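quick one, two chains, predict together pls
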Amino acid sequence: MIVHHPDEEILLDYGAGSLSEGLALVVATHLSMCPDCSAHVRLIERCGGALLDDAPEHRVDEQALQDVLERLDVSEPVPPPQIMRLDPETEALLPAPLRRYVTKNLVDLDWRAVGRLLEEHRLSLARKDVKAALYRFPAASRMPKHTHRGQEYAIVLAGAYRDGENRFRRGDFSAMDASHQHQPTVEPDGPCMCLVALDAPVKLLGLTGFLMNPFLRI
Amino acid sequence: MEVQAVGSVGRDCGTRLLRTGSALERSESSASVAVTNDDLCNLVEAVGATRDRHAFVALFQHFAPRLKGFALRRGIDAAAAEELAQETLITIWRKAASFDRTRATVSTWVFTIVRNKRIDLFRREGYPAVELSEIADFPAEGSNPHDGAQMAEIGDHLREAMLTLPKEQYEILTKAFFEEKSHRAIAAELGLPLGTVKSRIRLALTRLRGALPEGYT
């Protein structure tokens, strides 16, 4: 059961379209697993619809309509987007929004070793100053102690980790910013896989952090 | 294409000026008539089923000015706002067959389309969204399948509820949509405690949720 959810501010930002692509992907992944948060976002989207209905009408050129009509001729109707079909293990692990970015089976993904412990599979986003990646951490490992210059959103896909008093399992969402310092620890019963998005480099703390700077490479 | 004028709350110019708060944002609605969600659903379905160009033109005439106005309120420059409106309408043309009148009003559907478009001078990036068809196990909204008329009513209730929000709640909600400001930034701008901003948004959303029938969001 999912315990940790995006707060209302994040859901409002997501619904209104204010999040960058990487952060939005983490939220969308959570939404695909969480009916309550999805319902909240639908309310936000209805607000957007109401605001659109009552938006001030600005005159649009006659030519604009002609331009669009011409473009229609080359715009074929499209079926709903097809998510790549992947093997059962991959489809069970990766929710639909994420499967637009991960287009291979998990066993075929290339993972980059980062330091001694963790592995990273970076996702391709349109902008280079925002980062989103899958991370794999071994059981019982400690993630590098760090704080954040910008925002970091994360969601657990498999396994679990502890952060202070809280335990995070599949579907659990966390948001960290410059006011948080943390050192999450993976539970001992198995490895942990997360989707993490950052909109500014993570700032590593302490000597270990200085020596090992996986997150800094953006 | 004939459309029926339907009286609806908040449509008159006076209320619109009050809500937008700016004499410059004057709607040119003296010539336009109010269209219902049902009318819009019929138009979208005509486009989806038979590639009906007349229906598309009617949709263009309804939405293009609003999309442009909406984009301008978000601080997008005029040329980009124009392009965004056009691209949105082209997407409406392409996706019309997948519109489901029992799921959302046309305006909500169009809002999600324009929200998912990221067009600016330098780059186009996607906006990760969840297609309803991808969510296998979610319960259907409400206990019964609902039709376009019910959905229209829901849409009208929501719009009415939005227009009757206390001014300070409406102001903060629209800042979140139009100015992409975080709660913190809104608090700083208005000189309010962060808690006040959070609670006004929460009150506004609670009120709006209350305007919807049981079981719907």
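Helices of chain A lie at 8-16, 21-31, 35-53, 62-72, 88-93, 96-99, 206-211.
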